From TrEMBL:
Subcellular location field: Cytoplasm
Main function: ATP-dependent protein-folding chaperone for the eIF2 complex. Binds to the gamma subunit of the eIF2 complex which allows the subunit to assemble with the alpha and beta subunits.
Keyword list, A-Z: ATP-binding, Chaperone, Cytoplasm, Magnesium, Metal-binding, Nucleotide-binding
UniProt key word Nucleotide-binding: yes
Annotated family: Belongs to the CDC123 family.
Entry's Gene Ontology molecular function annotations: ATP binding; metal ion binding
Protein name listed in UniProt: Translation initiation factor eIF2 assembly protein
Record Pfam families: D123 (PF07065)
Biased composition (Polar residues): 49-62
ATP-binding as UniProt keyword: yes
GO-annotated cellular components: cytoplasm
Residues passing through the membrane, by range: none
Length: 355
């Protein structure tokens, strides 16, 4: 995978080409001060200047309980106030309204899929910039886009292309996970299709295997093949309840993209791919792409994003990566201990009084 391929898979590059085939979206350039704010590790306070929400999220040192904690040796503790971006906030709200009031947010490549657990609605559905910031600031996938978009490229020695960061707002659409498929395209040929949510068994996929595979192949050959800037890429599609296929996303053909029920070794080896192994099919028996899906309840697996659900603070503490967090944590522990000791003393006094 070359850096150029990653550049081509940015939303603002592929969207104009395939606009009619996908969900309506708007792209806003991300101002540098917003990028800085998103990358600022110390601030998990979410700017709340837009009127759609009053919520704020704070890290341990600035939590609501701050007044209860006696900072005995640090009188200079300051409350972190969230920076505000009035002009950008206005543009974002305008765009959200133009898209029907509820949006799915992304950066140039990624959505904050690893952070949905932190949102109050446990979803990526956003109605305000505060909702978006909360997800973005909690997401490793977003940080990856901002800090190392070319990390797995083979031409690492060549200079990094300039990236203009963008906030992508997509009209919120209730997509049923069983209708989502990832398609692997090599040399402009559709070689493999994988159920996207491979953690679940969907009976309808099993029953309609042929129709699904055919619908995706038709969609690919009619609308996508030879129309993209590269000949190797990964295409995410959605087949709705009426059988119509939609484009959801385009991704680089390489390890940064999850190969789901295939492996990258298989996909790049040049050998024909087989469909679901447990059906005993061989590569020779099939024509067209290999179609893989979860074939029974037995093979159901845990959701891959579950591992992201540890609060960042715990990770930082356990690896000792953020010294300030460690200091905050120790202060908190000490004040808890002192509270505990005070309580014990009170209990002893009460006990004595009772005797
Ligand atoms: N407009 C939308 N409304 C609601 N949900 C959406 C929307 N677009 C995408 N989704 C859901 O979010 C999931 C992730 O979206 P998308 O593929 O754009 O993110 P991504 O970060 O590019 O993911 P990946 O890293 O796997 O390529 C999709 O599989 C789909 O279930
Ligand atoms: Mg993607």
């Amino acid at each position: 995978m070359k850096k150029e391929q990653v550049v081509h898979c940015q939303f603002s590059v592929w969207y104009p080409i395939f606009k009619k085939l996908t969900i309506k979206s708007l792209i806003l350039p991300l101002p540098q001060n917003v990028i800085d704010y998103l990358l600022d590790d110390g601030t998990l306070v979410v700017s709340g200047s837009d009127h759609n929400t009053q919520r704020t999220q704070t890290n341990s040192s600035d939590s609501d309980g701050e007044e209860d904690i006696q900072w005995s040796d640090d009188e200079t503790t300051t409350t972190v106030t969230a920076p505000e971006f009035p002009e950008f906030t206005c543009k974002v709200l305008e765009a959200i309204n133009a898209l029907g009031g509820r949006v799915f947010p992304k950066l140039n490549w990624s959505a904050p899929r690893d952070a949905n657990w932190i949102a109050l609605n446990s979803s990526l559905q956003c109605q305000s910039l505060s909702d978006i910031f909360l997800l973005f600031k909690s997401s490793d996938f977003i940080t990856h886009d901002l800090t190392q978009p070319f990390v797995q490229c083979s031409d690492l020695d060549s200079p990094d292309p300039v990236i203009n960061y963008e906030l992508v707002l997509r009209k919120w659409s209730e997509l049923i996970p069983g209708g989502e498929f990832r398609c692997f395209v090599k040399e402009n040929k559709l070689i493999g299709i994988s159920q996207r949510d491979y953690t679940q068994y969907y009976q309808h996929v099993c029953v309609q295997e042929q129709q699904i595979c055919q619908a995706i192949q038709d969609f690919f050959s009619q609308h996508i093949q030879y129309n993209f800037l590269d000949e190797d890429f990964v295409l995410d599609v959605y087949r709705d309840s009426r059988g119509k296929v939609w484009l959801i996303d385009l991704n680089p053909f390489g390890e940064v993209t999850d190969s789901l029920l295939f492996t990258w070794d298989e996909l790049t080896s040049g050998n024909s791919l087989s469909a679901n192994q447990d059906e005993g099919e061989t590569a020779q028996q099939q024509e067209g792409p290999a179609f893989r899906y979860t074939t029974s309840e037995v093979t159901v697996q845990p959701s891959p994003c579950l591992s992201y659900r540890i609060p960042r603070d715990f990770v930082d503490l356990s690896t000792g990566e953020d010294a300030y967090k460690l200091i905050d944590f120790l202060k908190l522990k000490r004040s808890q201990q002192e509270d505990g000791e005070e309580e014990e003393e009170e209990e002893e006094e009460e006990e004595e009084a009772r005797q």
